[in-house]
Design brief:
Oligomer: heterodimer
Largest interface: A-B, 41 and 44 residues
Radius of gyration of chain A: 31 Å
Organism (chain B): Kitasatospora cathayae
Radius of gyration of chain B: 14 Å
Strand content of chain B: 35-45%
Protein name (chain B): Nitrite reductase small subunit NirD
Family (chain A): Belongs to the nitrite and sulfite reductase 4Fe-4S domain family.
Number of strands of chain A: 39
Order of helices and strands of chain B: EEEEEEEEEH
Keywords (chain B): 2Fe-2S, Iron, Iron-sulfur, Metal-binding, Nitrate assimilation, Oxidoreductase
Helix content of chain B: under 10%
Structural class of chain B: mainly beta
Largest sheet of chain A: 5 strands, parallel
CATH class of one domain in chain A: Alpha Beta
Strand order of the largest sheet of chain B: 2-1-9
Number of domains of chain B: 1
CATH topology of one domain in chain A: FAD/NAD(P)-binding domain
Distance between the termini of chain B: 11 Å
Distance between the termini of chain A: 63 Å
Strand content of chain A: 15-25%
CATH superfamily of one domain in chain A: FAD/NAD(P)-binding domain
CATH superfamily of chain B: Rieske [2Fe-2S] iron-sulphur domain
Pfam family, one (chain B): Rieske_2
CATH topology of chain B: Rieske Iron-sulfur Protein
Shape of chain A: globular
CATH architecture of one domain in chain A: 3-Layer(bba) Sandwich
Shape of chain B: globular
Number of strands of chain B: 9
CATH class of chain B: Mainly Beta
Structural class of chain A: alpha/beta
Number of helices of chain B: 1
Chain lengths: 869, 119
């Protein structure tokens, strides 16, 4: 640097960039612009209408479920200062003077520009019918809109949403969640008319109506009805009907906000939107437009954020005079969860290309609809997925690239049982994996191969892939893994940097050598060091599976993951929840009263879990032993809700009470839950027993599930709820009780012995060479000759079982860890605070704790009655 | 053998060395309600850092696991499993916390005081 002379030269050449609008696209433009080397010669001013910096409008509905506006903020603190950006909030631009190259704002300010970027977004479209300005009518676009809807919903009983598109359904979900009787009115004959086809729309409608939302299609709003006080009391429909309503939300689409451009004579499209070229320039080379206020070079006005982001980056390059791809059009694929229903559409979902054919699967019973559009040449053109969007990550890029499928398309739409092994769908390198940031598979591969990124996290940092909506993360993971394996990176095979062995290999080493400590194992079979969060809990689990005494004894205590270490479940504010075992879900009134008394005396939040137990939340570390003491004294023991171990065996009431039951499912469930309690495994285990084929215990979604038949018990294995649901497979039918139990013993031990770390039985079963047939041969016919060993391991587990809570209470050494502070054992943690909600406690959110003067704030440890507001 | 932590003004005796199990931590409450997570690793080295996890906003880091990445001693948050470098307090997985602040833990001076020397 030459000091002041350099500065002066820079000063002379400083130019002015003015950005109008600070929404999602505006913020992305600022980020892309600040990365341009040319940017340091420019001064940037942002003129925004809303009172707050850019936020994530796509996730606006999360405000109804507890998120705060701060959670949605998109502009990192310090970003503006770091780049010297002058952001002026709440002062919208009122006019553009192109001749003088300046803009005027509502407050009267004038700002000169060399380059002007319009990112004014769009406005909600409100149909031109009478009464839409009556109190009780809302639009759904900003944080302020959400606040107004929420305030209105508090005193309303019935809400109507006009518009059955993406935003409309989001708004309906929010009203429904607020307890309002909710109607959706859609002008088109189906919901989400742009994204899905008739079949998908029907599946979606059925799912949404099941949730209690009433859907009216092929109907428009013809007027808002008001009462004598001028407030909304209903909505008149175009078909002559009238719906009662205390609240109406218009969400019938958006219109480009192009008035500023119109007023200064810039050309706009026929249906709105400032006309721009592939470089996002308007007719005036000093003015650019990006996002929803622009009509792209392909004649479309995109109402999605991903194309807006691409335009933002294009515009930044244009101004910096950088070469690069222009914006010529974008992928409008979408994947989302609307009112809990998975919906995705990608490529050309309507099959508009000549000669396009459909392959479709529809099961209205389970609410699954899948359609693939196949071109005349066999290429995948697009598709619609409703109810199950598992295939989206792999199919979307393929469809967008227009590449032929490498497997028969029917295999991709049929349920797993019929599809056979479809095998991986190979993507071409130019396929876009992450459409939010326009990152191709090739770029991801290059990041791993050439830039040394060895994990999804590293790839995210290097390419931004997966940092937008996140729908490509799963696909990203498999591409990264594939590329690492191709490069022969050995860490993938090993557990972590400390062990080159897989979990299954470590299990065998421990089993064969009889080593009982982590440090010996690390010294003899690992690479030394301290270990890490991957190998420590894995070895802890292996040691526990093989029966090495209490998990908190000696060195083992230092290996346990946080939950196991405290024998309770860590919750979001640092407090714990406690779940006593309730085998089979059977509990006496006495037991219920005991749990109730304990929860009441300690001010805990109680909830019935999905696994037929009672969870008590809000205990601090120092309260845990007191709570356990009361539970243990009343005959309860640890439910192992904290460990990778058997959780529950659910049951129905079976033939004892049920008029349809054919066997005693409750007795069997209790017996199995007690048999496998405390069994440490690679992943948590859940099970269920149903007394008849009606399957009230949902046994087929469990790691092992049993369904009574008139001739015995059918055993299902490898089922899974959770993120990637899988129906269990029938392993054996009509088993007698002893054979059933022996078969489960062997199945579990074979899984524990051979599964990878955190590998669910469902994934393990699909990976198992030879699949279900092989498993059947091992556990029923002893094809590997290890059945006796598996039986012996299980009987050792059963005879060695001790309740971890009771054992901890009996040992002063183990008890010492249950203090909030080592130097102030009696002091409860002042940072753990609760506030009341629906008559119970919940963790205080940031900003609530200690700051709310009017609302009562409870500090853990104080036995205060919970006050209801 | 007692363990002391310096809060910027003075040393505070917080516990006996034997209170620290190698590989695990304890929470310490200093005046002004400042919370420190204190650890001893398997080689006997002591570390003291903020107890507040910048990613969850909960005071839980004392309940994390110790580990190592290459030559660096690490602390893994029990909440969302980010790893922190114990030598400089920096998060190794993410540069900034959700609130936009740099994800760095304050490190507190820590020492073992020989009981006889102190007497």
């Amino acid at each position: 640097m030459t000091g002041s002379t350099g500065m002066t030269a820079d000063d002379r050449t400083v130019r002015d960039l003015v950005l109008v609008g600070h929404g999602m696209v505006g913020q992305r433009f600022l980020e892309a612009w600040s990365e341009q080397p040319a940017a340091r010669h420019w001064r940037v001013t942002v003129l925004a209408e809303e009172p707050r910096p850019a936020y994530d409008r796509v996730h606006l509905s999360s405000l109804f479920s507890g998120s705060t506006p701060e959670d949605l903020a998109l502009c990192p603190s310090g970003f503006l200062a770091e780049h010297g950006i002058d952001l002026r909030l709440g002062d919208p631009v009122s006019a553009i003077d192109r001749a003088a190259r300046l803009v005027r704002t509502e407050s009267g300010a004038e700002v000169r520009y060399d380059v002007l970027v319009l990112a004014t977004g769009s406005v909600p479209f409100v149909p031109p019918v009478p009464g839409t300005d009556a109190p009780g009518c809302h639009v759904y676009r900003t944080i302020e809109d959400v606040d107004a809807i929420r305030a209105g919903a508090a005193t309303a009983d019935t809400g109507v949403v006009v518009g059955g598109g993406l935003l409309g359904l989001e708004a309906a979900g929010a009203l429904r969640a607020g307890g309002l009787a909710t109607h959706v009115v859609e002008f088109a004959p189906r919901l989400m008319a742009v994204q899905v086809d008739d079949g998908g729309g029907a599946a979606l409608r059925r799912k949404i109506e099941e949730l209690g939302v009433t859907v009216h299609t092929s109907a428009g709003a013809s007027g808002v009805l008001t009462g004598p006080d001028g407030r909304v009391r209903g909505l008149a429909l175009s078909d002559g009907r009238e719906l009662p309503a205390d609240l109406v939300v218009f969400s019938a689409g958006v219109r480009a906000r192009d008035q500023l451009a119109r007023d200064c004579g810039l050309p706009v499209g026929q249906r709105g939107g400032v006309v721009v070229d592939a470089h996002c320039r308007t007719e005036d080379p000093a003015v650019l437009a990006i996002g929803e206020c622009a009509q792209a070079v392909d004649g479309r006005v995109y109402g999605l954020v991903a194309p807006g982001y691409q335009m933002a980056e294009t515009a930044a390059r244009t101004i910096a005079e950088q070469q690069g791809q222009g914006f010529t059009g974008a992928d409008t694929s979408t994947k989302l969860k609307l009112l809990g229903v998975d919906v995705a559409s990608f490529g050309d979902p309507h099959g508009t290309a000549e000669g396009a054919l459909d392959v479709l699967y529809s099961d209205s019973r389970s609410g699954v609809y899948r359609k693939l559009v196949i071109g005349a040449d066999g290429a995948l053109l697009g598709g619609v997925l409703v109810g199950d969007t598992e295939g989206y990550g792999a199919l979307r890029p393929l469809a967008v690239a227009g590449k032929p499928l490498t497997v028969a398309p029917e295999q991709l739409v049929l349920p797993a049982g019929f599809a056979g092994s479809a095998g991986p769908v190979a993507l071409p390198d130019d396929a876009v994996l992450c459409s939010c940031h326009n990152v191709t598979q090739g770029a991801v591969r290059a990041a791993v191969r050439e830039q040394g990124a060895e994990s999804v996290a590293a790839v995210k940092k290097c390419t931004r892939a997966g940092t937008g909506c996140g729908s490509c993360l799963k696909q990203l993971g498999s591409v990264v893994k594939e590329e690492l394996e191709a490069a022969g990176v050995s860490t993938v095979q090993g557990l972590c940097e400390h062990f080159a062995h897989s979990r299954a290999e470590l299990y065998e080493i421990v089993r064969v050598t009889g080593l009982t400590t982590f440090s010996e194992l690390l010294a003899k079979h690992g690479t030394g060091g301290e270990g890490c969060e991957i190998c420590k809990p894995t070895v802890a689990s292996i040691l526990a599976s093989l029966g090495n005494g209490h998990i908190l004894d000696g060195e083992q205590a230092a290996l346990q993951d946080s939950n196991d270490h405290f024998l309770a479940n860590l919750q979001r504010n640092g407090s714990y929840s406690v779940v006593p075992r309730v085998p089979g879900g059977e509990i006496t009134p006495e037991g219920l009263i005991t749990i109730g008394e304990i929860a009441r005396d300690h001010g805990l939040y109680t909830k019935i879990t999905g696994g037929q137990r009672i969870d008590m939340f809000g205990a601090t570390v120092d309260q845990l032993p007191v709570i356990w003491r009361k539970l243990v004294d009343a005959g309860f023991e640890s439910g192992h809700a904290y460990g990778k171990s058997l959780r529950t065996v659910k049951s129905c009431v079976g033939q004892t009470w049920c008029r349809y039951g054919v066997q005693d499912s409750t007795t069997l469930a209790i017996e199995l839950e007690l048999r496998y309690r405390g069994l440490r495994s690679p992943h948590k285990l859940k099970a269920a027993v149903s007394g008849c084929a009606r399957e009230c215990a949902e046994a087929q979604s469990k790691d092992f599930g049993i369904i009574a038949t008139s001739a015995g018990w059918n055993l299902y294995v490898g089922g899974n709820g959770g993120m990637t649901p899988r129906h269990a497979d029938l392993l054996a039918a009509d088993l007698d009780r002893d054979t059933l139990v022996r078969t489960i013993d062997r199945y579990l031990m074979f899984y524990i012995r051979t599964a990878d770390r955190l590998e669910r039985t469902s994934v393990w079963l699909e990976r198992l060479e030879g699949g279900l047939d092989h498993l059947r041969a091992v556990v029923l016919d002893d094809s590997l000759g290890i059945a006796a060993e598996l039986d012996e391991l299980m009987s050792r587990h059963i005879s060695g079982y001790r309740d971890e809570w009771a054992e901890t209470l009996a040992d002063p050494d183990r008890m010492r860890r249950f203090a909030s502070f080592v130097n102030a054992p009696g002091t409860p943690d002042p940072a753990v605070t609760f506030v009341p909600e629906r008559g119970q406690i919940r963790p205080a959110r940031p900003g609530e704790a200690g700051h709310t003067l009017n609302a009562p704030v409870l500090v853990a440890g104080a036995r205060l009655e919970v006050l209801t507001p | 053998m007692t363990v002391q932590i310096h809060d910027g003004d003075r040393w505070h005796t917080v516990c006996a060395l034997t209170d620290l199990q190698p590989g695990r931590g304890v929470a310490v409450l200093l005046p002004e309600a400042e919370q420190v997570a204190l650890f001893r690793d398997s080689s006997g080295e002591l570390y003291a850092v903020d107890n507040l996890d910048p990613f969850s906003g909960a005071p839980v880091l004392s309940r994390g696991l110790l580990g190592s990445r290459g030559d660096r001693p690490t602390l893994i948050s029990p909440m969302y499993k980010q790893a922190f470098d114990l030598t400089d307090g920096h998060c190794l997985d993410e540069d900034t916390a959700p609130d936009g602040a740099p994800a760095v833990l304050r490190r507190w001076p820590v020492r073992v005081l020989d009981a006889e020397a102190a007497a």
